[in-house]
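for the recovery benchmark. tokens below, seq after
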């Protein structure tokens, strides 16, 4: 029975159910690693459709490039990314990221992304406005290094299923995956994307449990608390 599975096998059972329903997610949707980084900054507190519109504006203006963004005024950048919401704040955060890239790596994103995982994550977190979710999204999806990204959907699914306590912090939730799954970038990539899919479609603020592929797991996780 699922109830008797070790936590690592239970998590993989979740993954298999999601994969069966949604198939491979091919996430993150971007043409270049730099586009991933820009999206990771812009996606904070907004829907992905809004990020897509903001990135499209940058492409249309032909400024989706570290050097060109570095040369833009913050106000001009803010207008281009306006669809992403909180555009003045996000323009500053994006400029902070690009300025750091210019100052420390001569504008070469490959220089930054080639750092060892821990060094890369620490450097990203040193940039004003870059939090753990944004940093880990860049580490995983732009650099291809194995770190599990924790977002609002991840927290909501795990809490509703009793796999983490209410109010569990980012590090605690991330450790659940790091301690119980193989440290594998491809697995972390697709598993997180599967959680985003189930969160977006079913595990909403008002859940649609009957149609959710994880409905059969709802009572099981509480045995691990």
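predicted aa per position
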């Amino acid at each position: 029975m699922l109830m008797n599975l070790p936590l690592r096998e239970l998590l993989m059972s979740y993954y298999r159910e999601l994969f069966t329903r949604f198939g491979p997610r091919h996430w993150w949707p971007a043409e270049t690693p730099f586009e991933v980084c820009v999206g990771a900054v812009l996606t904070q507190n907004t829907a992905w459709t809004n990020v897509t519109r903001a990135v499209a504006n940058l492409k249309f203006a032909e400024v989706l490039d570290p050097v060109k963004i570095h040369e833009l005024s913050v106000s001009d950048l803010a207008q281009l990314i306006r669809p992403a919401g909180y555009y003045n704040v996000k323009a500053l955060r994006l400029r902070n990221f690009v300025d750091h890239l210019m100052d420390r790596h001569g504008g070469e994103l490959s220089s930054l992304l080639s750092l060892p995982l821990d060094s890369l994550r620490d450097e990203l977190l040193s940039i004003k406005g870059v939090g753990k979710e944004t940093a880990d999204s860049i580490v995983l999806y732009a650099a291809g290094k194995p770190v599990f990204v924790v977002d609002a959907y991840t927290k909501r699914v795990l809490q509703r299923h009793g796999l983490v306590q209410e109010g569990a912090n980012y590090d605690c939730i991330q450790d659940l995956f790091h301690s119980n799954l193989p440290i594998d970038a491809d697995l972390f990539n697709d598993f997180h994307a599967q959680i985003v899919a189930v969160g977006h479609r079913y595990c909403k603020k008002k859940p649609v449990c009957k149609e959710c592929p994880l409905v059969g797991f709802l009572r099981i996780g509480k045995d691990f608390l």
